[in-house]
Amino acid sequence: MLRVINTIAVMAITLSVVGCEMINEELPTYEATSIVECYDQAPDFTTTLLSGQSITLSELRGEIVLLIFFSHTCPDCKALLDDIKASTAEFEELGVRILAIAREGTVHEIEEYVTTNSYCFDTAIDNNRAIYNLYATMYVPRCYLIDKEGYVAATTIEYQSDHVPTLLSQIETLK
Hints:
Elements: H1 2-24, H2 30-33, E1 46-48, E2 54-56, E3 64-70, H3 75-86, H4 88-93, E4 96-102, H5 107-116, E5 122-125, H6 132-135, E6 142-146, E7 152-157, H7 163-174
Parallel strand pairs: 3-4, 4-5
Antiparallel strand pairs: 1-2, 3-6, 6-7
């Protein structure tokens, strides 16, 4: 019995040491996880919206596009999407096409999330992260403001309350 107790104690100590080392491990920087940056051509993709309509990014040339990658389980993503929803009239007035892409989730989960939160922008799901991986390797929410020629004019990573006002002011310069 003493051997079992000693074995369990050794395992518990080992797990706590490994766990502490994992907590102290530094996460990659935003720059290290960014594949696409300002002034880059936005990688092209085709996706299917929740509405069933197929959309290709390059076919939106001539429009300003706000591309948002999010997770329906992420509180910061919800805060950003709520800020965007609150500014929908301003985005529409500026002629911005909003395209939100869920990095994971089932159609049912994302439809319920969009409906529950009354989001009225185009939404798609990227379960295998094929689209997301063209742009980044980690962190959501991520926004890419894409100009009429298809170049990234601005990016935001994670959530800060000033992101939407900053994006709106950047859009003004693209008109």
